[in-house]
Automatic annotation (TrEMBL), chain A:
This protein's UniProt keywords: Membrane, Transmembrane, Transmembrane helix
PANTHER family per the UniProt record, alphabetical: LIPOPROTEIN-RELATED, QUINOL:CYTOCHROME C OXIDOREDUCTASE MEMBRANE PROTEIN
Protein name: Quinol:cytochrome C oxidoreductase
Positions of transmembrane segments: 57-77, 97-120
Coiled-coil portions: none
Organism this protein belongs to: Flavihumibacter stibioxidans
Keyword Membrane: yes
InterPro entries, sorted: ActD (IPR021776)
From TrEMBL, chain B:
Family label: Belongs to the NrfD family.
Coiled coil: none
Membrane topology per record: Multi-pass membrane protein
Name used for this protein in its record: Hydrogenase
Amino acid sequence: MAIKKFVVGSFEDEQVLFPAVKKVRKAGYKIHDVYTPFPIHGLDQVMGLRDTSLHTAGFIYGITGTATALSFMGWVFTKDWPLNIGGKPHFPLPAFIPITFELTVLFSAVGMVLTFCYLCQLAPFVKKHHFHARATDDLMVMVLECTSRTNEEEAKAFLASVGAKEINVQVAEEGWWLGRYDKEQKLFENKTESSLV
Amino acid sequence: MASLRYESQVRGALVTGEKTYHDVTEDIVRPIEMKPSRLWKIGFTISVLLLLFGVYSVYREVAYGIGEWNLNKTIGWGWDITNFVWWVGIGHAGTLISAILLLFRQGWRTGVNRAAEAMTIFAVMCAGQFPIFHMGRVWMAFFVLPYPNSRGPLWVNFNSPLLWDVFAISTYFTVSLLFWYSGLLPDLATVRDRAREKWRKHMYGVLAFGWTGSTKHWQRHEALSLVLAGLSTPLVLSVHTIVSFDFATSVIPGWHTTIFPPYFVAGAIFSGFAMVQTLLIITRKVLSLEEYITMEHIEVMNKVIVLTGSIVGIAYITELFISWYGQNPYEMAAFKNRYDLSTPYAWSYWLMMSCNVIAPQFFWFKKLRRNLLFTFFMSIIVNVGMWFERFVIIVTSIYRDYIPSSWSTYYAPTIWEVGFYLGTFGLFFTCFFLFAKYFPVIAIAEIKHILKKNGESFKEKMVEEESASVEKFAHEHAHH
C-alpha cells in the first residue's frame, strides 16, 4: 500500500489494446494494471501474468470437505455413539456418500469464494482508487506505474502513439482502504507531484 | 484474432440491433435507475400481501399445531411436501443454465443466466420453508444439525435421506448464492460507477465489494466461475437425486423405484425452464430487454422443455410398465390407484399426464416454439402439471394404505395449507420484484464478452467469411 504516480490511457477496442499492451511492455514500461469492463481472454497472457492457482486451492478445500465428512460420520457411528440400526454396518460407506459429496462441494465453493475475495481484496465497505469511471462501462483503461526512471511526458506520448485516448497522470493510493463511494476522501497530505517521483 | 470471433451462422444473433458496449450498459442499467413503474408497484404490493397471508397461515400452524392442516394417518405428507419438491424442482433451471451450459460453452446462457440464478435462489428459499414447518415444533428445527449437544451427545442419523436433504438443500442454496453473487460483483460495480445519487453510489459501492475490473481479478473471476460451474453441475443433479431418495429409499409401493433419481432430475429441469419462461417473458417486456432476451433464447428453452418433458413422459410409462412387469400386487395396486378413472384421485394423474407429456409435444413445431403467447401459456401449464406430478406421487401412493378402513378419507387441504403455499408465491415474487428493480437482470459483463461474436451487427460480417472456400478459410484462420 503506497501512494504512487500513474500514467493512465483508455482504449475503446480490444483489437487496439492487445498490440498496445505488447508494445508498451516491449518499450520497458511497467504496466500497473489494465482495467476492463468484461473479461478479455488472452489479455492476462499478453500482460505476462501468471496463471491463477485458484483451482488448486479449490481442490484442496474440496478434499478437506471430503475428509471432514467421512471422518466425522465415521467417528460418530463407530466411536462416539455406535447405534445398532437394524443390524446394519456401523460404517456404511454408500449411505455416507451423499453427505460426503455435499460437504466436498460446500467446502470447495465457500473456500474458493473466500480465497477469491481475499486475493482480490474484495469486501463490503472496501474502497479503491478508480482510474476511470468508464472502466466498468465501455473503456479498457491501461495504467502505467511511474518509476524513478519514467519520463512522464514520454510515457504519455508513447501511450498516444499506440492508440490510447484521454491520457492523463494520476497520483493515487494503489491499495484498498475502508471507505464509502459517495464520499471523496483524502487519504494523504497534498504533496506536490514532483516530490513523489 | 478473427478465428476467436468465429461463430457459426446456424445460431441466430444473441443480441439484436447495433450495439456498442456502452449501449449494453445503458439498456440493462436504465430500468434500475428509473423510478419504479406503476405496474411494478402493483405487482410488488400483491406479492407482499400474499406473503403476509402466508406468514399468518404459518403462524396458525406454529401456534395451533399441524392439526391446522388436513394431514391424516396415512397422508402424512400432503401439500407441504408436494410444494417443497415443486419449488426445489423449479430451483434447478438456474444452476443448470449457468453451470452446465457454461461448461458446454453455450453462448445463449448469457442473456438468461442472471435472472434464472436469482429465480433458483428464491425458489430454494421457498422450498426450504416446507420441511422446516412440516416438523411441527419448528423451534426445534436446529435438531437436524449435527452439533455437540447435551443429550449424549446424540447425533443425527447420517443414514437418513431426510438428513441428506438438509445437507443437499443447504449446500445447494449456499453454492447458488455464491455463484450468483460472485457473478454480480462486476455488474454492481458498473451500476456504482455511473450512479448519480449519493445513496445509490453508497449502496452499490458496498454491494460491489470495491470491484475495479483489474485483469488479474478477471482472470481469477473466470477461474472461479469455471470451477463453481464444475462443482454446481454434479451438485444440481445430486440435489434432486437426494430429494427423490426421500421417496425411493422408503418401502412404499409407488415410491420404491430405482428410476426416481433421473426421473426427478429431468422433471426438475422441465419445470425450472417453464418457470424461467414465465418470468422472462414478462421481464423482457416490462424492462424492454427484447434485444437481449431474444426469440432465439425463448426457442432454445422451449427445445429444452420438449426434451425434458418427453423424458418425464418416458419415465411415467416406464413406471407403469415396470409395475405390470414386476407383478407385485401392491405395486400394481398403487398404480391402479392413479390411472383407474374410478379412483378418487385419477383426475390428478390424467391432469399431470396431459400437462407434462402431451402438451409439450406442441413444441415440435417451430411456429409454436417462437410464439410468445403460446410459450407463456405452456410455461404455466407445465408448472401446473409438475405440481400435480408431485401431488400424484405423494398422495396417490399413500392415501390407500394396508388398512382399507382408512380408505374413505379424502384428503383436501385446509385454507392454511393453501395459504402457506400462496405465501411462498408471495415470498418468491417479492424477492423477484426487488431483484428486477435493484439488480441488473442480465449479466452485463457477459453480454459484452459475447457481443463481438454473437451480436447481430458483428455476426453479419461473418457471413462473408463463412461463404469463403475451405482453403481460403483455413489459410486465414487455421494458423492462429
